[in-house]
Specification:
Elements lengths: L1 E10 L4 E9 L2 E6 L6 E4 L4 E4 L1 E6 L4 E2 L2 E2 L4 H10 L2 E8 L7 H12 L6 E8 L4 H12 L4 E5 L10 H14 L2 E5 L3 H13 L6 H5 L3 H18 L3 E6 L2 H12 L4 E5 L1 H5 L10 H5 L10 H13 L14 H4 L19 H10 L6 H15 L17 E5 L4 E2 L18 E2 L2 E7 L2 E5 L24 H10 L16
Parallel strand pairs: 1-4, 1-5, 6-9, 9-10, 10-11, 11-12, 12-13, 13-14
Antiparallel strand pairs: 1-2, 2-3, 5-15, 7-8, 15-18, 16-17, 18-19
Helix pairs in contact: 3-4, 4-7, 7-8
The structure holds dihydropyrimidine-2,4(1H,3H)-dione and zinc ion (ZN) (3 copies).
Length: 486
């Protein structure tokens, strides 16, 4: 059974050209002119791009005394509708502290529900022999990245010694360390200070998490990664201070990757000061939205390549859940939506405005993610042999984003009223059409698959040797085999 995506303009991270794409079963068989097959998918007037990969979601995650409302089923449907064919979700250890059990628990929850493909990152929320041992099991189970929370003191936060130990373990295993960079000690002090001053509303959330808190943590994590000799991926970069730390580290030869969110690029801190508690609470996430100067920094990072990917940190809490913090902003569950909106908003605010080229858009939403997470070119590419995760991206379908027409279970949408100028005409996951504009039928829950991500190999023995011999440094920065150009 073959399908041909006909008459479109193929747009990848590195070039744009007119071609048909022939799909056989689940994979791309051929790219060329005048291809024929059993079925045809019309891409006239549209771009044919690799399916979006969202590297950062929290579906059904237990967090801050509740559980994120977006299910694996609703989340992956929303993703498909928005042109995203794979997401990478964060596993948190349960009460027994076991990483292995947490991964199995995520499989148990996600497998019957997902209609698009999924991968996991594993959170490291403490340090002991069991965690040290089970990180190897996680890598063997296809989870090659470990996230460290530098915030959420008393809950998820890790100390520097724990982070250093875990980063060293990542290096041994060929895994990628990640951090949520916010200084949890300072946040804790500022939260108490503002509460004591009688500031209990969502504006206190913004006051207690200033950009300096994120910048300090980003600098510290980068330094610890350098001491451990590992690359580092910094999730949800929201501000110039963290971006500046990343730029400086990259310029010194460190492999540091930065992930701004679509929310941070387009929504600013004025959302917390509108005098409408619920409006602001719905936008409480960590880090918080920043002022427009930080947005300009993030766009510049995407343009220059110092920031590589755009994610969502999709952590959906309903209005009722947000009310848990009605008397105390510290208790508002942190998180906002974006899984369905990421591509359309980035296209409208990035490509339509001339900030990004269509190729840079593809790199930031798909190809760079796949490279950094070690699933390229199975995912994130339109090449022969790759999974046929393809979006027919129509730059002529405009839409007003609204809770009324989204696929999330949320009773609001932080992008409510945004006019977007492009949409997925068709979303294909491993060759199957899982979304067709105008039809709005739900893809089959359980058809999605877990995508194991292998450990990275060391990129260059020779380079490490050279560094040892020629540099006064004692630290060996052992580059990992992440494809070049990011
Ligand atoms: N930040 C959020 O806003 N939500 C989930 C976790 C996080 O770090
Ligand atoms: Zn060890
Ligand atoms: Zn985080
Ligand atoms: Zn997150």
């Amino acid at each position: 059974m073959t399908k041909v995506i006909k008459n479109g303009t193929v747009c990848t991270a590195d070039r744009t050209w007119k071609a048909d794409v022939l799909i056989e079963g689940e994979t791309i068989k051929q790219i060329g002119e005048n291809l024929t097959g059993d079925e045809y998918i019309d891409a006239e007037g549209a771009y044919v791009i690799p399916g979006g990969i969202d590297p950062h979601t929290h579906l059904e995650m237990p967090f801050m005394g509740t559980t994120a409302a977006e299910t694996f089923e609703s989340g992956t449907w929303a993703a498909a509708a928005g042109g995203t064919t794979m997401l990478v979700d964060f596993c948190l250890p349960g009460e027994d502290g076991s990483i292995k059990n947490a991964i199995n628990e995520w499989h148990r929850k996600s497998a019957p529900q997902i209609c698009a493909d999924i991968g996991y990152h594993m959170a490291i929320t403490g340090w002991n022999e069991q965690i040290h041992a089970e990180m190897k099991d996680a890598v063997d189970m296809g989870v090659n990245s470990f996230k460290h929370f530098m915030a959420y003191k008393g809950a998820l936060m890790v100390e520097d010694d724990e982070m250093f130990a875990s980063f060293q373990r990542c290096k041994e295993l060929g895994a990628l360390p990640m951090v949520h960079a916010e200084n949890g000690d300072i946040v804790d002090i500022l939260q108490k200070k503002y509460l004591a001053e009688g500031i209990t509303g969502p504006e206190g959330h913004a006051y207690s998490r200033p950009a300096e808190v994120e910048g300090e943590a980003a600098n510290r994590a980068i330094t610890i990664a350098d001491a451990a000799g590992t690359p580092l991926y910094i999730v949800h970069v929201s501000c110039e201070q963290a971006h500046e730390a990343i730029r400086r580290a990259r310029q010194k030869g460190m492999r540091i990757y930065g992930e701004p969110l679509i929310q941070f690029l387009t929504l600013d801190e004025s959302e917390y000061f509108k005098g409408d508690w619920m409006h602001s609470a719905r936008r409480v996430m960590s880090p918080p939205f920043r002022d427009k100067s930080h947005q300009a920094s993030l766009w510049a990072g995407l343009q220059s390549g110092s920031l590589q990917v755009v994610a969502t940190d999709h952590a959906a809490f309903t209005s009722e859940q947000k009310l848990m913090g009605k008397d105390n902003f510290c208790l508002i569950p942190n998180g906002s939506n974006g899984l369905e909106e990421r591509l359309a908003v980035l296209w409208t605010e990035g490509v339509e405005t001339g900030r990004l080229t269509p190729n840079e858009f593809v790199a930031a939403t798909s190809s760079n993610v796949a490279k950094i997470l070690n699933i390229y070119p199975k995912k994130g590419a339109i090449v022969e042999g790759a999974d046929a995760d393809i979006v027919v991206w129509d730059p002529k379908i405009s839409k007003t984003i609204s809770q009324a027409n989204h696929h999330s279970v949320l009773d609001y949408n932080v992008f409510e009223g945004f006019e977007v100028t492009a949409q997925s005409r068709y979303t294909l996951s491993r060759g199957e059409v899982i979304w067709a504009w105008g039809q709005n039928s739900q893809p089959q829950p359980g058809r999605g698959r877990f995508v194991p991500r292998p450990a990275f190999s060391s990129a260059s023995k020779a380079l490490s040797k050279w560094k040892e011999l020629n540099s006064p440094r004692t630290i060996k920065r052992d580059p990992m085999n992440i494809p070049a150009g990011i």
